[in-house]
Amino acid sequence: MPTGRRAGSVGPVIGLPDDVTACLFDLDGVLTSTAALHEIAWKQTFDEFLAAHAGPDEPEFSERDYTAYVDGRPRADGVRTFLASRGITLPEGLPNDDPEDPTVNGVGNRKNGLVLKIIEERGVQPFPGSVAYLEAAHQAGLAIGVVTSSANGARVLDAAGLTRFVQARIDGLTIGERKLRGKPAPDSFLAGAADLGATPATTAVFEDALAGVKAGHDGGFRFVVGVNRADQAEELRANGADIVVLDLAELLDES
Predict the structure, then answer these.
(1) What is its EC class (predicted)?
(2) Which of 18, 19, 26, 195 is catalytic?
(3) Residues 11-33+125-251, CATH architecture
(4) Is 155 exposed, middle or buried (0-12, 13-18, 19+ CB in 10 A)?
(5) Catalytic residue (choose from 18, 19, 28, 71)
């Protein structure tokens, strides 16, 4: 498994420090447009839950709620964190809880069923700039990994045609199997670097979620790229992004 650049590769071509040998990409919102589909599924799930369990005066789930409490976190963590913001605590339940069960796992399973249905209906589209960046990183000889809190990481990568670039994948299933803490803890990124045979000191992290940027920063990674898909550039910087871009293509040297 490659762990470094090919001889003669040049850092500025891909906008990273010269000592970076590996890249870890978040999936939803960085490589693919599926973050928007996740937000739709979370909103429907939480709005229906709040209407049934919190009363008609409870405000609906908002875009701010998504970025503050859910985006980038493992599914169950997102359920707990958002509901805690509304003063609601649920029993954990079991991983195979029915989607209608009033448990953390039940609510999470309802959301997952919805997002899979939406993905099936709409398909998965990678961002063209991200595909171009993956191509450039591959040509530069960088090791490439994906670190996502989604349990559907393999399915999304396959549907987007991106699996061919990926040498290591840490997803929601891996996080559960290895008992890793989810983002904003750095555990999943640290595991991704280790699976690539790299160290944080020589690895770049690419994230659009505040929780993910914080995880990259707190994990001591060499370079953290914040991808500003949700008009939160200042928040990305405040959480530890070394640079903020609207699209990964901005990092490529076109000269």
Answers:
(1) isomerase
(2) 26
(3) 3-Layer(aba) Sandwich (3.40)
(4) middle
(5) 28
Token pair 């339940």 is found at: 93
Amino acid at 162: L
Q: What is the DSSP string of 195-219?
A: HTT--GGGEEEEESSHHHHHHHHHT
Active site residue 65: no
pLDDT per position as a tens digit, 49-96: 999 988 788 999 999 999 999 998 999 999 999 999 999 999 999 999
In whole angstroms, what is the distance from residue 33 CA to residue 28 CA? Answer: 6
Collapsed DSSP state (helix, strand, coil) of residue 28 = strand
Q: What CATH number does the domain located at 35-122 have?
A: 1.10.150
Task: Clarify whether 26 is annotated catalytic.
Answer: yes
Q: Which two tokens stand for residue 218?
A: 């707190």
This prediction's pTM: 0.83
Q: Measured between alpha carbons, how far is residue 242 from residues 131, 222, 227, 236, 237 in Å? A: 22, 9, 11, 9, 7
